[in-house]
Structure formats: structure tokens, C-alpha cells
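Researcher: Here's a chain I'd like modeled. Treat it as a single chain, no partners, no ligands.
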Amino acid sequence: MRDASLPESRRVCPHLDRDDPRCASRLNLGRLDQAYSVCFGSFDVCPMYHELNAEDRVAQPERPPMVETLRLTPLTCHGRHLPLRATGS
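Model: Modeled as a single isolated chain. C-alpha cells:
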């Protein structure tokens, strides 16, 4: 299920920070193209993403899947919105 409220370029796999060894094959320098296309974009097509969600549902059945809890919070300072700009290529 895709979250239509997030642009494709802002979507990141919510399991990325788990450092799960099953994701290591994609998260290495030799396969950065796969990491960017799947883990930083279309992670909902990744079988490991669905397996990790299923494990979470078994461990904590009352919690919804992580993709549904992922929300971006706008950056503010003293109540004013701070726009972000790209700094890379």
C-alpha cells in the first residue's frame, strides 16, 4: 500500500534503521542502485519489507504496520515553517 500523501522521492523504508542482516545484500556499496530504487522509494514492493511487517504484527498485533504510522513533521522554528532545500546532486 502506497502512502499517497508522500511524494515518491521522500519515501524511505521504515525498517531501514533496524540494521537487519537480511537487508544487508541490498545495503552495500555494490548495490546502491537497488537501495535507492527500493529502500528509498518503492519499498512496498520489497518482500523483506512485508516479512518484517508480518513479524511486527505477530510480536505486537495491536500495532498497525509501520508504513501507516510513518508521517513527516514540518520543520518549524518559533512557530514559523522552515523550508528545506536540496543540498546534494
